[in-house]
Amino acid sequence: MLTGVQIVLAGGDARQLEVIRRLTELDATVTIVGFDRLDTPFSGVVKAEWSADILKQVDALVLPAVGTDDEGIISTLFTDQELKLTDAHLAEMPKTSKVITGMAKPYLRKLCEKYHVELIELFERDDVAIYNSIPTAEGALMMAIQNTDITIHGSNCIVLGLGRTGFTMARTLQAVGARVKVGVRRDEAFARAFEMGFEPFYMPELARQAGNIDLIFNTIPTMIITAQVIAQLPLRACIIDLASKPGGTDFRFAEKRGIKALLAPGLPGIVAPKTAGRIIANSLTQIILEDNRLRGNRP
Ligand code: NAP
Q1: Which of 141, 198, 220, 229 to probe ligand 1 with, by most ligand atoms within 8 A of CB?
Q2: What SS3 state is found at 196?
Q3: Are 6-124+273-297 and 127-265 the same fold in CATH?
Q4: Which homologous superfamily is 127-265 in?
C-alpha cells in the first residue's frame, strides 16, 4: 500500500485518469492539478492550483507522457490553465522526492539535475516499451488499413528495426497474413528474424528490397528511408513512420514523388488511452511501492 505517500499529479490526458485511479486504490495521498474540467471526481483526491507550495512535502511529482515541452509547459487536456514547471517548483521539492514521467525533454532533465531531484522516465524501461509496443502495433495496423486499398493479408511489408516495437509490429503483420521482410543491422537480429519466419535483410540492402513493397513500418529513430530508398518504392507504397520525431523518413522527397508517408507518434495514447494509462499506472506504482519499501519509513 502507499498509505502516507504524497503524490502530486500535474497535467496529462485520459491516460492519467488510470494513474490517479490506481494511486488512490493503493491509498496514496493524491493531489491533482490541471483537471478542472474532469467531471468524474475521484474520492479522496484533492484538486489544487499549480504552485510551488504544493510540492513542499511531495514524494513524487507525476507528469504526463511527455513531461514538459522545451519551455517547461506541462501538457493538459482537462484545463485551459497553463501549467509551467520552473526552478521555483523544483527548489521546493524534497531531495528524496522524484519526478516521474514517460519521457523527458532536455528542459526537464536539466531542471531535475540542477536541483538533485531524481528523474524517472518510464518509457525508457524495457517492460514499459514492450507493453507499449502492443497498442503501437495495433495503431500502426489501423493506419495501414486506412491508408491502403488492399488487405494487409497478402501484402508485402517491410519493418525496419527489430527492437521492442519492431518485433511486435512484425509479428502483428505476420499474424494477419502479410509477407514480412525485416531490416536489421546485427547478425543476432538477422538470425532471430529468420527463426520467426520473417525475411531478414541487412540495412544497406534497403533500397534493393524496396521494389515491390506495399507498406514500410519504420521504428529506427534516424534518417533511414532516404530519397534513394523512396526512389525505388512503387507509387502505391505507404510509409508509416513510428520512430520518435522527426522520424526516419525523407518526408519532403516522399511528397515530391507522390508516395504517402505518415509520421505516427504517440499511438498508444491515441488508439488505446485506457490500456496505455494502465501500462503507465502499473509501472509507476511498482516504482513508488519499491522505493517506499526500500526506504522503509512508511506504515
Ligand atoms: P528499440 O527497442 O531501441 O529499437 C530500435 C531499433 O532500431 C533496434 O532494433 C535498433 O537496432 C535499430 N536501430 C537503431 N539505430 C539504427 C541504425 N542506425 N541502423 C539500423 N538499425 C538501427 O526502440 P523501440 O522501443 O522499439 O522504439 C523505436 C522507436 O519507436 C523510438 O523512436 C520510439 O520513441 C518510437 N516509439 C513510437 C511509438 C509510436 O506511437 N509511434 C510508440 C513506441 C515507441 P539494434 O538492435 O541493432 O540496436
Answers
A1: 220
A2: coil
A3: yes
A4: NAD(P)-binding Rossmann-like Domain (3.40.50.720)
Would you say residue 37 has pLDDT above 90?
A: no
pLDDT on residue 295: 66
**pLDDT, tens digit, for every residue of 250-265?**
999 999 999 999 999 9
* Mean pLDDT on 10-32: 92
CATH topology of domain 6-124+273-297: Rossmann fold (3.40.50)
Q: Give alpha helix (H) positions in the chain.
A: 14-25, 87-92, 106-114, 126-146, 164-175, 187-195, 206-209, 227-230, 251-257, 267-271, 273-295
Q: How confident is the model at residue 297 (pLDDT cuts 50, 70, 90)?
A: low
Cα 270 to Cα 13, 79, 132, 193: the distances in Å are: 10, 19, 12, 29
Domain ranges within the chain, ordered by starting residue: 6-124+273-297, 127-265
Is the model's pLDDT at 293 over the cut of 80?
A: no
Q: Which residues line ligand 1 (CB under 6 A)?
A: 129, 132, 136, 161-166, 185-186, 189, 203, 219-222, 242-244, 264-268
- pTM score, whole prediction: 0.90
Q: Whose CA is nearest to atom 46 of ligand 1?
A: 163
Angle at 282 between CA 68 and CA 79, to 5 degrees: 40
CA of 282 to the centre of ligand 1 (A): 23
Residue with cell 511531495: 58
